[in-house]
């Protein structure tokens, strides 16, 4: 991971926060970026032999973020949509940096 890629993710998370998404609060943006990046990059190891679609990869990042930030995943409820926005922002940066 380059510092520029991580910085782009943190900027995208800051934009989400400024636009009303409650998940990427400033105090969580660095950790969200780190967890999301780690999850994105480890998909091949965790899903050996499977090629996930971009949407499946976003959902995989959502699962990783929820596991890292929510003590009881059963209580996430509608907040999962906000985690999906965070995961999509991470995925967008990662997909643009891979091309």
Order of helix and strand elements from N to C terminus: HHHHH
How many H/I helical runs? 5
Q: Pairing-aware structural class of the strands and helices? A: mainly alpha
The low-pLDDT segments are none
Give a written overview of the molecule:
The protein is mostly helical and 99 residues long. It has 5 helices and no strands. The chain has helices at residues 3-18, 29-41, 43-46, 54-69, 80-97. The longest helix is centred in the last third of the chain and has 18 residues, at 80-97. The radius of gyration is 13 Å and the shape is globular. It starts with a helix and ends with a helix. The mean pLDDT is 92.
Descriptive terms for the model:
mainly alpha; single chain; about 100 residues; 5 helices; about 70% helix
What is the compact description of this entry?
This protein is mostly helical and 99 residues long. It has five helices and no strands. The chain has helices at residues 3-18, 29-41, 43-46, 54-69, 80-97.
Question: What is the element layout, followed by pairings?
Answer:
Layout: H1 3-18, H2 29-41, H3 43-46, H4 54-69, H5 80-97
Helix pairs in contact: 1-2, 1-5, 2-4, 2-5, 4-5
């Amino acid at each position: 991971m380059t510092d520029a890629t991580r910085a782009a993710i943190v900027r995208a998370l800051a934009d989400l926060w400024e636009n009303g998404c409650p998940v990427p609060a400033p105090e969580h943006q660095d950790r969200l970026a780190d967890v999301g990046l780690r999850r994105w990059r480890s998909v091949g190891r965790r899903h050996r032999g499977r090629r996930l679609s971009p949407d499946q990869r976003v959902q995989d990042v959502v699962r990783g973020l929820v596991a890292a930030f929510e003590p009881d995943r059963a209580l996430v409820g509608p907040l999962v949509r906000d985690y999906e926005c965070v995961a999509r922002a991470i995925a967008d940066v990662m997909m643009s940096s891979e091309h």
